[in-house]
Amino acid sequence: MIEILISAIAIILLLYSARLKQLNPYRFLAIFSVTITLLTISSCYQNTSQPDPTAVGSAGSCRAIAHFMGETCVPENPQRIISLYTTPLANLLALDLKPLAITPVTGVQDEFPPYLAEKVEGMEIVGINYEPNLERIAQLKPDLIVGWDFHEKTYPLLSQISPTLLVPKDITQSPNADWQKYTNYLATALGKQDKAQQLIAEYDRRIAELKIALGNRYSNKTISVAHISDEYGTEAYTVNSFPGSILSALGLQRPQSQAVSKPGGTIDAISEERLELIDGDLLFVLIYNDSDRQMLNSLLNKPLWKKLKAVQNQQVYPVDGWTWGVANPLAANAVINDMERYLIGTSQ
Fold first, then answer.
1. DSSP assigned state of 95
2. Taking the C-alpha atoms of 21, 25, 31 and 32 in order, what is their torsion angle to the nearest 10 degrees?
3. What are the boundaries of each domain within the chain?
4. Could you name the CATH architecture of 62-173?
5. Tens-place pLDDT, residues 20-53
6. d(CA 249, CA 236)
7. What is the pTM of this model?
């Protein structure tokens, strides 16, 4: 049905563009380009709308899973998965499933955080998170597409290409502190519950071991987590953030200003006059790019920053923002590695 509608719209645009050609050549070229794209996508839908009944995960062998946009029949044992966001990508990899194609993780097409870099080798990039390349996705003939809540607008088209699974609405409200919830959700959709339990048990084991290794050395100290950038200014991470949840699991104290829950897990737009909101005996600073790193180096020399306890203690530690800022089981392991490195001087 959708391919018929797209084709009809394309034909109307084509007829209209023919008239515009005589009046406005620039509008003609724009409409003609849109028309060609619509016809291409329609063709891809026609080529993929009839699934091969012998293919793995074909119709009749699937699980009905509820999510942000309703319900999707997720095929059993999908072989051609496309992931459109970092959280499902990392969870798929943790569940021993390798997607066929993905969207960029860091905003730069060929750059990935260290914990993902080797694991995504050979995967094709299909657009960006908020604007996936529908034409290319259709050409790849996926048997499952996994996205997030911000794919709401493209969901009708994505779901015509392949079964498309977004995120449940309740998980979007606290995706960072409750990251295990999404791991279990995706594992249930894909029949990987046992693997999910192994992942969470391994996380719990590492937390328990690190707590023992830390002993009492931080019992009277506070640990702050912040991010600085030209775009967002200075932000502090609260207990319901991803790093905040790990620090809480370890029983480590936070500055009073961060020992609260905030929407999104952050206190935003902190001015220099309110730098006490990021003060602590030790400070982890999320760095997403070279600009963030340069900004931090500059700020550390400013008088107001020099008043921070962590700066005076020389315990300001820059960490990878793409790892500490996006919750998933692989990133959790990497964050624990960082905490071991900086808190007790060892890492795995």
1. T
2. 70
3. 2-48, 62-173, 199-343
4. 3-Layer(aba) Sandwich (3.40)
5. 444 444 444 444 444 444 444 444 444 443 333 3
6. 19
7. 0.82
